[in-house]
Write a structure and sequence with these properties.
mainly beta
């Protein structure tokens, strides 16, 4: 696929995470110290909306059952082998727009 505009950078303040629809997929965009990361916004546990969770550093906490994910890698925090993860998507900043490639 290609990069698609997800939002304005101002829609995701530093230290925050928000959910956007990108090419038909729910994507959570996090702003960690001014750097943007995009992950699948659907928790693997029971489908909770990660984009509505709390962001603590690089970790988002699912608002439904407190599962934790590292937004920089998609890995589930505390997964025994680190293999369990959700999809991470490439992000580009163009001016004041956030572009995400969910392809």
């Amino acid at each position: 696929m290609a990069f698609v505009r997800a939002a304005k950078t101002g829609a995701v303040p530093q230290g925050a995470i928000a959910e956007f629809e990108v090419s038909g997929k729910s994507v959570a965009v996090a702003n960690v110290a001014g750097k943007f990361f995009a992950i699948n916004s659907v928790c693997v546990h029971e489908g909770g909306p990660l984009g509505e969770g709390a962001l603590n550093g690089t970790v988002v906490i699912c608002p439904w059952h407190a599962w934790e994910y590292d937004v920089t890698t998609g890995k589930i925090v505390g997964s025994p082998d680190g293999a369990e993860r959700i999809a991470c998507y490439p992000v580009e900043i163009r001016g004041d727009d956030i572009y995400v490639d969910v392809g």
